[in-house]
Amino acid sequence: MDSLLHYATVALILSGSVVAVPSNERRAVTPVVASTTRYGILDMQGLNRDSCTSTAWYNNVLWVCRDTQPLVNGLPENVLVVNTASYSSIPSATTPANLVLTSPQGFGPTFFPLESDECPASGLCSDGTRWVGWPNTAPIVTFAFDNNVNSYAFIPRQHLSGLSVIADAGTTLYHALWQGQVNTMPSVSVAQSQFWSADQVGYGSTATVISNGFAYLYGPTPSGQLAVSKAALTGFLGDLTSKSIYQYYVNGAWTTTAPSKSDSTISLPNTSTVQGQIYFSTKWQSFVWIGGDGFPNANFYISTAPNPEGPWSAHTLFFQGEVGNGSLPAYSAVAHPGMTDGTGNYIFITWTKTTASSAGDIYTQPLVRVDWQ
Ligand SMILES: *[C@@H]1O[C@H](CO)[C@@H](O)[C@H](O)[C@H]1NC(C)=O
Ligand SMILES: *[C@@H]1O[C@H](CO)[C@@H](O)[C@H](O)[C@H]1NC(C)=O
What we know:
Structural class: mainly beta
Bound molecules: 2-acetamido-2-deoxy-beta-D-glucopyranose
Signal peptide: 1-20
Keywords: Signal
Distance between the termini: 45 Å
Protein name: DUF4185 domain-containing protein
Number of helices: 2
């Protein structure tokens, strides 16, 4: 940890690198698509997996995906882990091509490990139910310097029967640390089980954005909207494990007391819990949400806000991806702000499209670049 310790001060500067602009200086934003370019697909190098999200990871991109199977002769094998991770480069800004995702660890083990009460290692329980550790969004990087990356992920503990949730069992905080080892995945551990209890919002599990020295952490409310908390990046290397650094947006103001998720004043108007990403656009000097509307399609919507807590504009549809012929035709409309050049002039998007096969659904994730006017 020596070099990490040495650069702790730098982390505080870097983590505040998104410049705060007073909201009254920000224009209302109406994003308009100038052009779209089909790059190809995410080349999974022999893995069948869905719902991949990404984050900028030093000079690479870190991807986390959900259910993963090996593909043998183009067909999925009857074995599965609930999440896996990969790296990729940043796509070329000028030459459309498939984007290769490499997994130094190969098929399995689970990137965010299941906990001892979640029927590890596969999540499959003897009664036919299933625990999943499905990431909705990639880890939030709170420190990156000198070949060291410190990051956190908030993963809902979900117990399923089929695709129905039997029990919402809180949200666990995972820590992912990378210290420059070439061609290795970050080391991942449980920082705190049930960091958010079952009657609290799973802050950070739906979307995250760093701004002005805070990690803004969004989670779902029972009304299908987002609530937000913010954690001050004042801890060592952007540590997110102490509740003392957290504030919660309740009834239009920040407070240090975590609300119950049933508090009707925490839901942010014009937000949605469907998988989506939030980032800051330097082009628009605005926060941006991009996401979908869930099964069974790949419709992409955009919404903007002058501040992380809003007010968020109504979603507008800006792209419709093609669907497949598998059991769930398309879903997981995901944006990848970590893969842009920082100008905000364009964004990469992917979605999951399923194709029926004799051995179950095959997942394809098309990659499209959207340029804004
Ligand atoms: C939600 O979007 C609509 C349509 O743009 C807008 O009129 C309304 O003010 C928004 N709600 C909030 C609370 O911002
Ligand atoms: C599903 O789509 C794939 C790819 O387009 C095609 O090869 C296959 O024949 C289709 N299967 C069915 C049952 O329509």
